Amino acid sequence: MHWIALQLLPDALQGQSEEHSVADPLAALAWQALQFTPKVARVALDETAEALVMEISGSERLFGGRGPLLRLIYTKNSALAPVKYTQAATSLVAIAKLQRAGERASLPLHTLAAARPHLAMLARIGCTCWGDVRALPRDGVARRFGADLLDALDRAYGQKPELYPWLTLPSVFAAKIELHAQVETAPALMFGAQRLLRQLQLWLRLRNEGVAALEFGWTMDARRNTAREGALTLRTALATQDIAHLQRLLGENLARLTLPAPALYVSLRTLRTEPLALQSAPLLLEEAQKGDSLHQMVERLTARLGADNVLQLQTRADHRPETLQKWNLIKNLNQFKSFEIPIKGANKQNNARVNAVNFLSPLVKNKFSKPFAALLQADALYPTWLLQPPLPLAVLHGMPHYQGPLTLVAGPERLEAGWWEGRHNTALRDYFIAQSEQAGLLWVFRERLGERLGGRLEERLGEGPGSQAGLSAGSGAWYLHGRFD
């Protein structure tokens, strides 16, 4: 058997770095130790001090021997809090060495908890160390000092098994700490929250779980005529162990709060956790994800701007440009989806678009700057920006004007949609690409009025969109609907 005893140094809390600070360092050490052995226990050294004991004999082979295991244990612990440690064949001897260095035979009696109630009597009969008591007749020791002292000595010398209430991880994380001073502003609570989040991260890693909902609470000064407690609930779309992301979310929410009274305590409790699936690291460094994921970005924006100010794009099966998409509130981040709107053309193209591309190819290459190369794609008639609502254009001599006369260079593309929503929402339009000397390329449309045009428009469209008849202005009101900026 091989036992290790760990004890926090008196200045453990002050010696912690901000990066690794936790709410309860000894509990964090105990949870850390459970990575190496299931036999971990907290024991009381006296009325004020506690220590950890670990039995590692059964785990040595799993970690390549005692030496590598001990180095791993001490390296892990040093990151959480400064500790001192000892090793021995039994736990009681290891605990005694924490309190005073020395060999087992010369350990003073005050380092054995079962002997402390009898120190004065043992001193009068000349017993000052463990070996002195062990040399006394067992029957006499049992009659005068009780069986507990003999039982402790037997366990210390390995003659009886050592039994402890072994630690296990709680099924729900809940921790509370007292703040060093009264905190009057909500953002200042982050110092205490960071310590709680660090301990939560350790708990999640040991359970191989991620947190999807947690509650951060604070207790305020009871002497104020306000509510005694406050709480803030954080929810994430996906269960996570990313404490940095949770810390940013909590900071964004606290920045929007006002404390009605100074806070004295802060607490953290998990509301919902989920097992995490193991993921393999990418083989190539280029494949590693950089920055926040889409869900994390949406969660941060929601926390900073409010849920009513973060919208989700929804595409719609409608030909009208102003109704091709819709922006909705994200009611449930678990159902949040990203939409990739294709820039390149679809497989099905009408003749108007094909002819427009063919017509614009030499024009774009010879006369326009590089950004207009996008017009060579199959969606050539769709502009960069839409005007909402469309801007009515003046018509002089049958031609639309915008900062001067417009020259129709491509079109028309006919659109008939919205009839299922009623007469007032029906769109009957012919779209053109127009060139302006001052404004560049514009996207304009003409309202098509069948009762006024009769069959003449259909005849002109039959001649092809690149012909003079196809590009003529004709009748109907004209509107500017987009710009190719």
Low-pLDDT ranges:
338-357, 363-378, 450-473
- Residues in helix, %: 25-40%
Give the rounded overall mean pLDDT.
Answer: 76
Q: What structural category characterises the helix and strand content?
A: alpha+beta
Q: What is the C-alpha radius of gyration, as a whole number of Å? A: 39 Å
| DSSP summary: helix tally | 14
**Number of E-type strands:** 17
End-to-end distance: 78 Å
Can you give me a brief rundown of this structure?
The protein is 28% helix and 27% strand. The protein is α+β, with helices and mostly antiparallel strands and 485 residues long.
For the structure shown, list the relevant keywords:
about 475 residues; four-stranded antiparallel sheet; 17 strands; five-stranded antiparallel sheet
